[in-house]
Amino acid sequence: MDGLLPSEIAAEFIATMLLVIVGCGSACGAATKDGPAWVLQVALTFGLAVTVLECTIGHYTGGQFNCAVTFGLVLARKLCPIQGALYFAAQLGGSVTGALVLRATCSDTGKDQTGSLGSNFVKSGFSAVSALLGEIVGTFVLMYVVMETEVNPLSEAWRPFAPLAIGLAVSLAHSVLLPVDGCSINPTRSVGPALVAAVSMPAGRDKSPFMDMWIFWIGQPRLR
């Protein structure tokens, strides 16, 4: 750990908060059952948000704001476990804060097209197994791109393009998984909206935002 640690923690907090506000906010405004166009919009929004935030805070932490990425880097021994734990705490705090801002913005719950601040859950017609498999593959794609563009020394010449590659990987995963489970590939981004939605949404909902949460945590990569 170094003298930049407080700035690193703040960067992870702010980036995760903004990702939830922008990404989940896009889903809240666009997600409908009428046609597939909203899938492309939300997928591009998440991908562009990741690219922008990577460029913004990459000089602090490499731009993680995703505990799956942080966990993968710790397992690959590219990140100190203590730093990883602190980043994780910052990411959780940012996710909850972002969801609170989104809740305040969408104060009329009837205007939220997702019905749950963009929380992740298995959609009708899909099974938990299919969603879990999708999350594993989607998270693998993300981690594979991260490791090969930002970590592998052989890719140093292409390092300036890493944020774009990572953002595109996020968009690709979302374009496939949004109709399946809302696409997480980022457990910390899933916790904040689910927590705030569970507390603030009207009673009588047939499905809790936390019901399928285990899928998005088990779907993280296990790097060796």
TrEMBL record:
The chain crosses the membrane at residues 12-32, 38-57, 126-146, 158-180. InterPro entries: Aquaporin-like, Aquaporin_transptr, MIP. Pfam families: MIP. It is a multi-pass membrane protein. It is found in: Membrane. SUPFAM superfamilies: Aquaporin-like. Keywords: Membrane, Transmembrane, Transmembrane helix, Transport. Its main location: membrane. Belongs to the MIP/aquaporin (TC 1.A.8) family. PANTHER family: AQUAPORIN TRANSPORTER (PTHR19139), MIP17260P (PTHR19139:SF199). This is Aquaporin. It comes from Prorocentrum cordatum.
